[in-house]
């Protein structure tokens, strides 16, 4: 639809600009365009990242979502060149050198004669307004930079026939000659507004739907628009269980032909593609009922007020249970399991009984749900395999477990939340699907961590009566806390897995009291996204990393976040929260901007206070010592000498400080611009790392400190890191991550194709 809007797409030799407010999907659209173009074997993509947030993982996910072969993805990554830009001058110089690069015949031949490069600058305002200047310099210097930038872009499009895409933000002009002062306009002013040949405006409508409007184009009508879907979240569908039939999306067209009730809620677009409205509760209920009927021959009617189960997630859990049972070579026809909180349609019990013939016991506290569940069981002729038991709300297992029986497994999908404000699943973006479920199904006192804690405590009393205890976890932070609780109960036989579906990740936790020679859960099959975290694309520079184990003071990631915010307030530095992937519930990201080394002043004040305390202590001891010696007729001046030496040192430090201030005052007239530049701007990434190889160890916190810019350089970053270590009081507990890294000696490190950074001087 975007190609149709632009009358055939992007043309070589033209500058196109993407404008839009924050979080409208400009970067994701750029990455998608880059992926589509780079797949063509004769085109190289140059991606100039001015915000330093290019994610190779995010780019690779776009390619994988298009179902390209691995060799195609690898070749595409090699032909996507990423360069991090720090200043407007660097950007202009790089563009000019790129012109020279493509005009040189030798370089053109070395790249196989590939022409028509795609150049993406993401984004212009981030680099143009990066350095704060004085008022009288701002307009003049910005105009000069925009003039040079426009000239460099024109040379690149004319001389190399390149396609140049710039990313711009929007603003509002309030001048008197503006017809509509409230109308949004491109940033960077009127001068730059004339430069791009094509300008598109991206506005977010709802969810992933975006309206792209033509602001300026020679071939298209202005104000013409198209509706596109821009996926700005991490798709984890490739991590769905390999045997899950919903790894491939359902054929909605086939369902509409076979089932009249589904045909009523199906929507056909102008291209003839069938879709449904995921924001409509009725449509979701009909979809679930149709899938259960079509794929499993299960006939159910979901009550409007009850939870509508996501079948893909339920099947991931069911298939993991199957993996555990088969791995331990249990007879599949004689397995008995317990489903804690089975719900109104007892979805897990129905699936396990229908697919594998398991004997299932479902527990439930709500009488209305019990009645409806029994009707579902009878309707599907499974009453000989499924039994629903009424239990008290303060007991989890004990009302369902008979004393003389052994059960193979238990499973549970606990209520995730404690109250409305506790729902953190949609942290940044609104939910993709319409919400469903009542308070009894979604909420419980203390949230899921309190519920699973009671489950673990009851399992200690039951012991081996249930061979394998399992539960689903909705938050990764809770997973770490519950793993720690299990270890504290001296339970070493446990494992965990990930349930990935669409754009959501849940976790499965399993533990057993049986000896490992009978059931070794550590070797059981699991699915885990290997190493995926917010720092996956970062180089492991351990000089900017603080790793320390969990303790009583810092037991969860919120403790670290609160500590950092308090520290920033005390030091008078700016701490800004940054967005992270939706499923990274155990991660946090922020940016620190410091105008001065206030942490060094704080450390100096602390040392001076400690010295003064020591002086008072020495002085008091000296007075007592002198008094004692006078009484005995003896006199010692050692204490007095020490006191004078310390005071002299203090005076010397004070004098040095005064001289430094004087020198800085003398040079202040030459540094007015530099004074406006922050001493340090760095990104903070906080994550919880799980000890997978040796589960008896505690999980650890990792605080990454990534230098972005600042006049203080890396020295300021290192001094802030040392301040954090002292403030956290973890100096003796610092974990050295390099011990777990295998290093090769005597060999040069090969350049990886993960993130190709082109040094400016070697471009």
- Kindly report the spatial arrangement of strands forming the biggest sheet: 3-2-4-5-1-8-9-10
Q: Uncertain spans, ≥5 residues at pLDDT below 50?
A: 106-114, 131-136, 175-182, 420-432, 434-438, 531-542, 625-675, 692-696, 738-763
What percent of the residues sit in helical stretches (DSSP H or I)?
25-40%
Radius of gyration: 32 Å
What's the CATH topology label of the domain at 2-229?
A: Rossmann fold
CATH superfamily of the domain at 2-229: P-loop containing nucleotide triphosphate hydrolases
Explain how this protein is built.
- InterPro entries: METTL16/RlmF (IPR010286), P-loop_NTPase (IPR027417), Rad51_C (IPR013632), Rad51D_C (IPR047323), RecA_ATP-bd (IPR020588), SAM-dependent_MTases_sf (IPR029063).
- This is Putative methyltransferase METT10D.
- It comes from Camponotus floridanus.
- Residues 1-170 form the RecA family profile domain.
- The chain has 763 residues and is of the alpha/beta class.
- Helix content is 39%, strand content 19%.
- Among the domains are: 2-229, Rossmann fold (3-Layer(aba) Sandwich); 312-419 and 434-511, Vaccinia Virus protein VP39 (Rossmann fold, 3-Layer(aba) Sandwich), CATH 3.40.50; 537-599 and 678-728, TATA-Binding Protein.
- The strands form five sheets. The chain has an eight-stranded mixed beta sheet, with helices on both faces. Strands 15-14-13-16-17-19-18 form a seven-stranded mixed beta sheet, sandwiched between helices.
- It is flat and about 85 Å long.
- It starts with a helix and ends in a 35-residue tail after the last helix.
- The C terminus is likely disordered.
């Amino acid at each position: 639809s975007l190609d149709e809007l632009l009358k055939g797409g992007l043309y070589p030799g033209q500058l196109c600009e993407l404008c839009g407010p924050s979080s409208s999907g400009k970067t994701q659209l750029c990455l998608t365009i880059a992926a589509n173009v780079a797949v063509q074997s004769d085109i190289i993509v140059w991606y100039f990242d001015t915000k330093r947030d290019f994610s190779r993982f995010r780019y690779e996910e776009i390619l994988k979502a298009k179902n390209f072969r691995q060799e195609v993805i690898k070749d595409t990554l090699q032909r996507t060149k990423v360069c991090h830009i720090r200043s407007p001058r660097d950007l202009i110089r790089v563009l000019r050198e790129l012109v020279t690069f493509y005009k040189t015949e030798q370089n053109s031949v070395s790249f196989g004669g590939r022409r028509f490069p795609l150049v993406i600058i993401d984004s212009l305002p981030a680099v143009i307004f990066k350095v704060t200047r004085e008022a009288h310099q701002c307009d003049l210097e910005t105009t000069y930079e925009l003039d040079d930038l426009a000239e460099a872009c024109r040379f690149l499009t004319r001389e190399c026939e390149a396609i140049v895409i710039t990313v711009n933000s929007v603003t509002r002009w309030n001048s008197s000659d503006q017809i509509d002062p409230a109308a949004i306009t491109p940033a960077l002013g009127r001068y730059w507004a004339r430069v791009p040949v094509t300008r598109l405006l991206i506005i977010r409508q709802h969810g992933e739907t975006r309206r792209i409007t033509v602001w300026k184009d020679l071939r298209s009508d202005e104000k013409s628009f198209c509706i596109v879907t821009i996926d700005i979240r991490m798709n984890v569908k490739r991590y769905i269980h390999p045997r899950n039939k919903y790894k491939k999306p359902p054929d909605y067209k086939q369902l509409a032909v076979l089932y009249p009730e589904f045909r009523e809620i199906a929507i056909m677009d102008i291209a003839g593609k069938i879709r449904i409205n995921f924001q409509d509760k009725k449509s979701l209920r009909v979809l679930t009922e149709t899938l259960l009927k079509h794929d499993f021959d299960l006939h159910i009617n979901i009550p409007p007020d009850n939870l509508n189960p996501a079948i893909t997630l339920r099947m991931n859990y069911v298939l993991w249970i199957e993996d555990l049972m088969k791995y331990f070579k249990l007879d599949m026809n004689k397995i008995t399991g317990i489903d804690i909180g089975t719900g109104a349609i007892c979805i897990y019990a129905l699936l396990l009984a229908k697919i594998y013939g398991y004997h299932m016991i479902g527990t439930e506290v709500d009488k209305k749900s019990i009645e409806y569940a029994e009707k579902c069981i009878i309707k599907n002729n499974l009453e000989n395999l499924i039994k629903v038991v009424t239990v008290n709300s303060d007991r989890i297992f004990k009302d369902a477990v008979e004393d003389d029986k052994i059960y193979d497994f238990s499973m549970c999908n606990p209520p995730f939340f404690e109250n409305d404000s506790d729902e953190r699943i949609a942290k940044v973006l609104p939910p993709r699907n319409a919400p469903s479920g009542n308070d009894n199904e979604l909420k419980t006192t203390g949230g899921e961590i309190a519920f699973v804690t009671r489950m673990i405590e009851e399992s200690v009393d039951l012991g081996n009566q249930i061979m394998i205890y399992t539960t689903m976890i909705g938050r990764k932070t809770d997973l770490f806390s519950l793993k720690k609780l299990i270890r504290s109960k001296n339970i070493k036989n446990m494992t965990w897995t990930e349930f990935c579906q669409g754009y959501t990740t849940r976790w499965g936790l399993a533990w057993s009291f049986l000896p490992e020679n009978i059931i070794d859960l550590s070797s059981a099959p699991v699915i885990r996204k290997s190493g995926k975290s917010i720092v996956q694309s970062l180089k492991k520079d351990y000089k900017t990393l603080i790793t320390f184990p969990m303790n009583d003071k810092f037991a969860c990631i919120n403790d670290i976040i609160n500590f950092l915010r308090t520290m920033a307030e005390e030091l008078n530095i700016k701490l800004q929260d940054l967005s992270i992937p939706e499923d990274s519930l155990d991660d946090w990201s922020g940016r620190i901007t410091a105008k001065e080394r206030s942490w060094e002043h704080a450390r100096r004040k602390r040392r001076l206070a400690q010295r003064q305390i020591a002086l008072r202590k020495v002085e008091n001891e000296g007075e007592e010592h002198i008094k004692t010696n006078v009484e005995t007729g003896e006199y010692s001046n050692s204490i007095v000498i020490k006191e004078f030496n310390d005071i002299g040192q203090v005076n010397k430090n004070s004098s040095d400080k005064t001289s430094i201030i004087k020198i800085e005052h003398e040079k202040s007239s030459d540094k007015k611009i530099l004074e406006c530049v922050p001493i340090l701007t760095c990104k903070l990434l906080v994550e919880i790392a799980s000890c997978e190889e040796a589960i008896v160890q505690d999980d650890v916190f990792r605080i990454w400190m990534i230098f972005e810019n600042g006049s203080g350089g890396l020295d300021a970053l290192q001094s802030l890191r040392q301040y954090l270590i002292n403030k956290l009081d973890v100096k003796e507990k610092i974990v050295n991550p390099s011990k777990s890294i295998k290093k090769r000696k005597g060999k040069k490190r090969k350049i990886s194709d993960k993130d190709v950074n082109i040094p400016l001087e070697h471009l």
